[in-house]
């Protein structure tokens, strides 16, 4: 099995680091409804970790716990070796956790470039006056951050829409812009909420390649929720399976595929 | 022919031209590429340093003289350097279409026996790895973009910048060898090998020498007075001879700057930012741009629309004449100047063509309306006629002598001859050396005296002295009375109407011409929508009386324009019908590149063809169709056959081909 501190090597030869985040016995309730019940799992540095499960299984709630949007009633979130106190989402973001949303949340009236630049907000430290006058530190910062953002625009191949308002873009490209904005924050953990939802096969292939490239190029740890089984099994190193707020499986795609509880709850029949 | 092996001025290779440019204008920009949102530029001196580093790196990897190095990627400075570096070490660059399928690439790489390939990214690397079993000679691959390639086995895979670094490190060891190899290059050495796309059979490798490329570049640059101040945007495939001539031949000869777009999708923005002074595009690009303008004008406010229509009408009237420096009244000139301020200028700027001094289009026929639109804006758009085998230039239109239906006069240094069959032959310093490993094709294309068959039929227009290309020689036939029958020429005229998607003209061995026509569903459908005409299918729309009436008026217009042309007046379309189905590659009626297959069509629609010639008014027919998923079905329809008005022609004219 996995060694918590030492990490492991994947089938394709990638070196995965030690545990960077650990969820311990998380329980989340909304009134009488228990969305997440006593779930524990860990995330290693540099791995692609998927959370899967049928509708209403609590996947998005789990992601919201990680991103600080919900604070669980019970359980602990450990991040980089320390227990995380209850936090607001912006505080979590400052710790280096960035996310994309299931229903795209971009500024529709702003250009792609401006949207991605908002992802750099954490790196901008110049004061209000300096920003308004755009002199000295503010100007320097803007130039540095623009250079960084341009690298990401190049990386995700969205140069042609750099100056296009986001509202005019098709869905697949909006998803890519959202990923760009998340990457602009230089996250150490990237949370992707259904990055391929509503995409056609070609867009899915593109997005999968970008997810792998992000992981490979920047060494970013990725936690993703996804419905498309093919995508999940191809992309991820390890998979957590949830059903009715409970964890019913955890392991490599192959292990999960063979797990009877998972088959019964979700997959129906074993994929070949 | 006795030819000296070096040029008069000692500049007998591209590397020699590079050296000259470094000495004369080392600090001027040679290449620009937009990357990370900014135009990065390299001077001639920097370019020479980059090329030298790569050349040393190639020596370090063991490139031998005479090796072929395949190059596959989009237009980027790195690839242009790679071609010149290849030449520096005495090897031969073979640019390959980067979008070609793995099998096609395998054919080319295997045919030339490339030992090295310089490619762009993971996509190309994967493609070659996929077919490497077939490529016994391929040893090393060099890539530019490392993304996704980190984990690949790097025994035979190298990053471009690393090859350069190793080259710089090994400078002492290889500098002498490099200088020696460079010094050996002369006018007879191979400059580049380009594969023709080949509509029939396998691609052929056209070997072009330094003489071919440099002479063709020199004379064409002089023809259009190109200087070191030109700006070009390199966006057409690097494997195409035109790009090699514009972005390497002429660029090195004149010393102008080659600008590379950020990506294929940003071409329009980059074009506007650079504002090229010398520009080439196939007709398709001009067509698309014009359509975009028109669509946007349809959505514009009423005043803007009025302004546009008003001034464009004026521009059509006097624009081309002003451009050609002809006599135009002062009033009309003033109005044109005002139009330039309000409409033409801003429009040209939006199109990215504001600074174009010399613009060319070639490759296929351009619609006269499209051609005139750009010329009326004051853009000096001209046509040229060329081939890979000619190092591009066969004929060019001189400034001030531009006609939409001719391709111009023989380029400087080119001799033209029209054979009795009507086929055009040429001879020039740009004529290719040979087809690589294909003596048979070489012999059948180029004769002992150096005349090359173009495969196109044409004649010299008496009024202008310009060459007119009519058709592919093999398509040209004879009508019953012995007059020339040129179907594609007539079809192109018909297809210039947006409502007509395809046309197939018959007449070989017959007394009269007749045609099958396909309407353009999007254009006609749009019209139907605006006029509240309901329709359920292509077939229904194609049979609508109003549609037939419109098509009839188009055919008659074509007839009138044909009648003005003594050579082709007898090719007027007497009768036509609008087909009940779209011609489709799935049904074998067209090639995958959308060229009509006359043989298949006339066999398949034999009954319809018969009806065109037996005088009947309508005919009932059933046709088998193949759906996209491979299932077969059939459609039947009663088609109306329509008589079009023709302009009476006098007694048969003499062939005026000389």
The number of domains of chain B is: 3
Which residue ranges of chain B are poorly predicted, with pLDDT under 50 across at least 5 consecutive positions? 652-658
Strand arrangement within the widest β-sheet of chain B reads 4-3-5-6-7
User: How many strands in all of chain A?
Assistant: 12
Order of helical and strand elements of chain A: EEEEEHEEHEHHHHEHEHEEHH
- Percentage beta strand of chain B: 15-25%
The major beta sheet of chain B can be summarized as: 5 strands, parallel
Instruction: Supply Rg of chain B.
Output: 27 Å
Widest sheet: strand ordering of chain A = 8-9-10-5-11-12
CATH topology of the domain at 1-86 and 223-272 in chain A: Rossmann fold
- What is the molecular shape of chain B? globular
Biggest sheet architecture of chain A: 6 strands, mixed
Count of alpha and pi helical runs of chain A: 10
**Span from first to last CA of chain B?**
26 Å
Rounded average pLDDT of chain A: 87
Please report the first level of CATH classification, the CATH class of the domain at 1-86 and 223-272 in chain A.
Alpha Beta
Number of β-strand runs of chain B: 29
Summarize the structure.
The complex is a heterodimer of chains A (272) and B (658). Chain A has 272 residues and is of the alpha/beta class. Chain A is 36% helix and 25% strand.
Describe it for me?
The complex is a heterodimer of chains A (272) and B (658). Chain A has 272 residues and is of the alpha/beta class. Chain A has a domain of 136 residues: Rossmann fold (3-Layer(aba) Sandwich), CATH 3.40.50.300. Helices cover 36% and strands 25% of the residues of chain A. Chain A contains 10 helices and 12 strands. In chain A, the strands form 3 sheets. Chain A has a 6-stranded mixed sheet, with helices on both faces. A 4-stranded antiparallel sheet of chain A has the order 4-3-6-7, covered by helices on one side. In chain A, a hairpin with a 5-residue loop joins strand 1 and strand 2. The mean pLDDT of chain A is 87. Chain B is of the alpha/beta class and 658 residues long. Chain B folds into 3 domains: 247 residues, 3-Layer(aba) Sandwich (Rossmann fold), CATH 3.40.50; 195 residues, ANL, N-terminal domain (Rossmann fold), CATH 3.40.50.12780; 161 residues, ANL, C-terminal domain (GMP Synthetase, Chain A, domain 3, 2-Layer Sandwich), CATH 3.30.300. Chain B contains 21 helices and 29 strands. A 5-stranded parallel sheet of chain B has the order 4-3-5-6-7, with helices on both faces. A 5-stranded mixed sheet of chain B has the order 12-13-14-15-16. In chain B, helix 2 crosses helix 3, helix 8 crosses helix 9 and helix 12 packs across helix 13. The two termini of chain B are 26 Å apart. The C terminus of chain B is likely disordered. Chains A and B meet through helix 5 and helix 7 of A and loops of B.
């Amino acid at each position: 099995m996995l060694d918590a501190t030492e990490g492991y090597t994947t089938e394709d030869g990638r070196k995965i680091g030690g545990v960077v985040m650990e969820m311990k016995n998380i329980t989340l309730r909304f009134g009488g409804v228990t969305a997440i019940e006593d779930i524990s799992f860990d995330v290693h540095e540099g791995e692609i970790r998927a959370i899967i499960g049928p509708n209403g299984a609590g996947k998005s709630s789990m992601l919201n716990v990680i991103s600080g949007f919900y604070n669980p009633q019970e359980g602990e979130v450990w991040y980089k070796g320390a227990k995380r106190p209850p936090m607001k989402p912006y505080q979590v973001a400052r710790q280096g956790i960035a996310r994309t949303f299931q229903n795209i949340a971009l500024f529709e009236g702003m250009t792609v470039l401006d949207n991605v630049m908002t992802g750099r907000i954490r790196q901008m430290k110049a004061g209000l006056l300096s920003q308004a006058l755009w002199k000295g530190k503010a100007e320097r910062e803007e130039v540095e951050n623009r250079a960084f953002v341009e690298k990401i625009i190049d990386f995700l191949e969205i140069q042609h829409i750099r100056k296009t308002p986001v509202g005019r873009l098709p869905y697949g490209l909006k998803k890519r812009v959202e990923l760009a904005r998340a990457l602009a924050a230089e996250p150490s953990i990237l949370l992707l909420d259904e990055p391929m939802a509503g995409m056609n096969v070609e867009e899915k292939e593109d997005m999968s390649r970008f997810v792998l490239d992000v992981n490979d190029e920047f060494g970013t740890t990725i936690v993703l929720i996804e419905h498309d089984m093919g995508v999940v099994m191809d992309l991820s190193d390890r998979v957590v399976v949830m059903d009715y707020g409970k964890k019913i499986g955890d392991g490599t795609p192959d292990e999960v595929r063979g797990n009877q509880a998972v088959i019964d709850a979700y997959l129906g029949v074993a994929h070949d | 022919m006795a030819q000296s092996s070096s040029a008069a001025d000692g500049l007998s290779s591209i590397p020699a031209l590079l050296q000259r440019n470094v000495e004369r204008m080392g600090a001027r920009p040679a290449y620009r590429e937009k990357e990370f949102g900014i135009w990065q530029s390299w001077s001639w001196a920097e370019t020479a340093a980059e090329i030298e580093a790569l050349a040393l790196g190639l020596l370090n990897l063991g490139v031998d003289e005479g090796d072929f190095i395949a190059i596959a990627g989009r237009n980027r400075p790195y690839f242009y350097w790679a071609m010149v570096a290849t030449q520096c070490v005495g090897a031969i660059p073979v640019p390959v279409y980067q979008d070609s399928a793995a099998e096609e690439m395998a054919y080319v790489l295997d045919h030339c026996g490339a030992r090295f390939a310089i490619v762009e990214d993971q996509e190309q690397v994967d493609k070659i790895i996929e077919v490497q079993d077939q490529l016994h000679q391929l040893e090393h691959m060099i890539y530019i973009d490392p993304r996704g390639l980190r984990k690949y086995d790097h025994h035979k895979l190298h990053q471009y910048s690393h090859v350069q670094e190793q080259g710089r490190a090994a400078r002492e060891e290889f500098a002498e060898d490099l200088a020696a190899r460079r010094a050996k290059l002369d006018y007879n050495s191979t400059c580049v090998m380009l594969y023709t796309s080949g509509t029939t059979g396998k691609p052929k490798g056209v070997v072009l020498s330094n003489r071919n490329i440099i002479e063709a570049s020199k004379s064409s640059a002089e023809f259009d007075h190109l200087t070191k101040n030109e700006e070009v945007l390199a966006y057409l495939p690097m494997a195409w001879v035109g790009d090699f001539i514009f972005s390497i031949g002429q660029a090195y000869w004149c010393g102008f700057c080659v600008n590379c777009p950020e990506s294929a999708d940003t071409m329009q923005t980059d074009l506007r930012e650079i504002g090229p002074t010398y520009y080439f595009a196939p007709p398709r690009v001009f067509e698309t741009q014009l359509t975009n303008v028109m669509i946007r004008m349809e959505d514009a406010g009423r005043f803007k629309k009025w302004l546009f229509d008003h001034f464009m009408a004026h521009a059509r009237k006097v624009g081309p004449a002003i451009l050609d420096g002809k006599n135009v009244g002062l009033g009309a000139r003033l109005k044109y100047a005002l139009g330039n301020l309000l409409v033409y200028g801003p429009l040209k700027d939006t199109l990215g063509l504001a600074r174009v001094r010399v613009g060319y289009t070639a490759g296929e026929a351009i619609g006269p309306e499209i051609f005139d639109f750009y010329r009326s804006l004051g853009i000096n758009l001209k046509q040229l006629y060329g081939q890979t085998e000619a190092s591009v230039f066969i004929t060019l239109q001189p400034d001030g002598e531009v006609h939409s239906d001719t391709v111009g006069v023989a380029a400087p240094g080119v001799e033209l001859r029209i054979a009795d069959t009507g086929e055009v032959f040429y001879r020039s310093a740009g004529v290719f050396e040979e087809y690589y490993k294909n003596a048979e094709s070489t012999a059948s294309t180029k004769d002992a005296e150096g005349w090359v068959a173009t495969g196109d039929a044409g004649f010299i227009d008496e009024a202008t002295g310009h060459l007119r290309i009519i058709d592919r020689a093999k398509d040209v036939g004879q009508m019953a009375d012995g007059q020339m029958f040129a179907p594609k020429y007539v079809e192109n005229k018909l297809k210039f109407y947006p409502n007509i998607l395809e046309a197939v003209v018959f007449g070989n061995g017959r007394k009269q011409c007749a045609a099958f026509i396909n309407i353009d569903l999007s254009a006609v459908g749009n019209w139907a929508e605006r006029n509240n005409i309901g329709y359920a299918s292509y077939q229904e729309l194609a049979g609508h009386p109003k549609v037939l009436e419109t098509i009839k008026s188009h055919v008659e217009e074509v007839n009138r324009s044909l009648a003005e042309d003594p050579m082709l007046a007898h090719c007027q379309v007497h009768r036509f019908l609008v087909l009940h189905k779209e011609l489709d590659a799935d049904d074998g009626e067209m090639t995958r590149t959308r060229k009509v297959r006359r043989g298949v069509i006339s066999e398949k629609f034999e009954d319809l063809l018969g009806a065109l010639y037996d005088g009947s008014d309508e005919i009932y027919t059933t046709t088998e169709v193949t759906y996209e998923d491979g299932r077969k079905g059939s459609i039947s329809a009663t088609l109306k056959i329509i008589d079009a008005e023709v302009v009476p022609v006098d007694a048969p004219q003499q062939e005026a081909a000389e």
